[in-house]
Amino acid sequence: MNGPVISRRSLIAGSIGIAALLGLGGGVKYAWATERELLRPPGGQDEERLLSLCIRCDRCRQACPLHAIESAGVEEGLLNVRTPKLNFRTHALARTLGTTEYHEVDAGYCNFCDAEGAGGQVKKCVAACPTGALAAFDESYERIGTAVIDPVYCINFPQLGQTPTGCRLCVDACPYEAIVMNDEQRPQVVPDKCNGCGKCEVVCPSASYRALVGVGALEERAAAGNADYAASLSFYRRTGVLPRGINIVVQDQAAEA
Length: 257
Prior knowledge:
This protein is of the alpha+beta class and about 260 residues long. It has helices at about 10-25, 45-55, 60-65, 90-95, 125-130, 170-175, 200-205, 215-225, 225-240, and strands at about 70, 85, 145-150, 180, 185-190, 245-250.
């Protein structure tokens, strides 16, 4: 079976980019990289391997049928520039927010190129990668990341005078039964079942509530000793984005206090 063919133009462009990064100190592991942990496409979870083999050709992004892959920018660190990252928020923000009525989504998350759930399907981003920066990936036991529910932003937790809404969009969206309603009728992640596909984050309606709690409020309430707000602030400092009700993160926990 023939692998992807890389053009001379792509090879030269990628080589120039890598050489420039090496000249800026890229030979040192994670030098010039941000402290943020980027969500990588399937098979890109070995950060050192990805950074050393990726030639920034953009083929994985173009191959993604659900448009969940983006190219990292300068704000993610010089070593990460033009490397692939997953962003489940882009399509979430394009949806009607604030509703608790579930509507099937058709873009913005990773279905591992296996819409029918048959298993063993070839990942198009992996197949498109000409250098092996994205390795073989089996979502049945490997994970992109883990879902974390932020009680500060989840509209099913009382915050800012709100009352629980009974929202269960993330529960209904998850194709792996990795999110369930607990005894208090609030969503709860089952980490062992979660592979980080991001569908829960795409459907989460609480992005509309981010305006109600800004960084200043997080800092003030965290300083007052509120553990939930301290965790949200730590998440913001690590990722560079304000959290929502549910987020897919690289580690099992959103942040360390």
